[in-house]
Design brief:
Helix content: over 70%
Number of strands: 0
Oligomer: single chain
Shape: globular
Distance between the termini: 72 Å
């Protein structure tokens, strides 16, 4: 009987454990309606699932596992980052990134893919902490996008280009790609900065136009190869190049138009937003692009070694680092502008 009594007491203690631990576990504030958050945090046709502002950093980190309207946006990029990291580890088993200078543009592509997915995941996860953090982290996101544009240009110019097009753009292709990446970063940052003083379509045009110009230039070697694709060509890389173009153009549709949430307002607040579909398609585009570039690296070596020599790959890497530095400077200047605006707003309220 004594043992049974002790067992009963122990079972009672076990049952009380959740109540004893509850005060120690930090509670997560409930998500909010769109009418309860500042206008600059609201997304069109998304009515609920907004996280409250001015919480602790740990709250936003833990919200990675909470149900809100940025959960899927964060995870789609976070999983993309992990897939690109695994892809890099897999490639490193057979590609000598350090010893072979001709492999370095491929390394730039994969690193830049990890860069844009990582920056975007951070922006969607932490951008709701405050107005300043919102701008800061999304400017960082635009740095990630710009450096990925440059990474795309590097592999297309180095591995995918045909000899005739190379003869016309040699010496100007990569500097132009770097310039367009920086302009894309500037356009996106400035569009974000002015997003609540201008109509939404003006912001979209300001963000999309420089990015569209960069995409057209950066992908021109791929377009040329696809246009010349004939039944006699059996290069597997062409199928993946076609896949990356189709996925990218499809993703831009969902970036530009708020669908399907426009058709079902308030019903796609957590899952089903067009921006989430955009993320998935962009991940598929990048995976196809990496695969195509790896196949070109393996199958077109005789051509690109003759066209580029041993020095041009290192110049591509150096220009990549310069592009990242310039884009970071652009974002820093825009953050300073945001700080001044917020300081002026605080002074007017006092």
């Amino acid at each position: 009987m004594d043992r049974i009594g002790r067992l009963f007491i122990n079972l009672q203690q076990v049952r009380q454990m959740p109540r004893l631990l509850a005060p120690a576990a930090p509670s997560m504030p409930a998500t909010l309606r769109d009418t309860e958050v500042p206008r600059y945090f609201r997304e069109g046709y998304v009515h609920s699932g907004y996280r409250p502002l001015d919480q602790s950093w740990s709250y936003y980190l833990r919200s990675l596992f909470q149900r809100h309207n940025e959960t899927v946006n964060t995870w789609t990029h976070l999983l993309g980052f992990l897939v690109f990291l695994l892809t890099l580890c897999h490639l490193a088993e057979t590609v000598d990134f350090l010893g072979d200078p001709h492999a370095r543009p491929l390394l730039v592509l994969v690193v830049s893919a990890m860069g844009y997915s990582g920056c975007s995941a951070v922006a969607h996860l932490l951008g709701s902490k405050s107005e300043l953090c919102h701008y800061l982290f999304f400017f960082m996101d635009y740095i990630g996008v710009a450096q990925y544009q440059y990474g795309s240009a590097a592999v297309h110019y180095y591995y995918a280009i045909e000899e005739g097009w190379h003869g016309r753009v040699a010496g100007v292709f990569m500097p132009t790609a770097a310039l367009l990446a920086c302009l894309s970063c500037l356009g996106c940052c400035y569009g974000k900065f002015c997003s609540h003083s201008l109509p939404s379509w003006v912001r979209r045009v300001g963000q999309v136009t420089p990015s569209a110009l960069a995409y057209a230039w950066d992908t021109s070697p791929v377009f040329q190869r696809l246009l010349r694709w004939s039944a006699e060509d059996d290069e597997a890389a062409l199928y993946f190049h076609l896949g990356q173009v189709v996925c990218f153009l499809s993703s831009t549709f969902f970036f530009m138009y708020p669908l399907p949430q426009r058709w079902f307002p308030g019903r796609c607040d957590i899952v089903g937003q067009g921006h989430q579909i955009f993320h998935v398609l962009l991940n598929l585009c990048t995976l196809s692009q990496i695969r195509a570039s790896h196949l070109d690296y393996l199958g077109r070596r005789r051509l690109y070694v003759r066209l580029h020599g041993d020095v041009e790959a290192d110049l591509c890497v150096g220009l990549y680092l310069l592009t990242v530095a310039v884009c970071t400077l652009i974002a820093a200047v825009m953050v300073a502008k945001v700080r001044r605006v917020l300081d002026d707003k605080v002074q007017k309220c006092q």
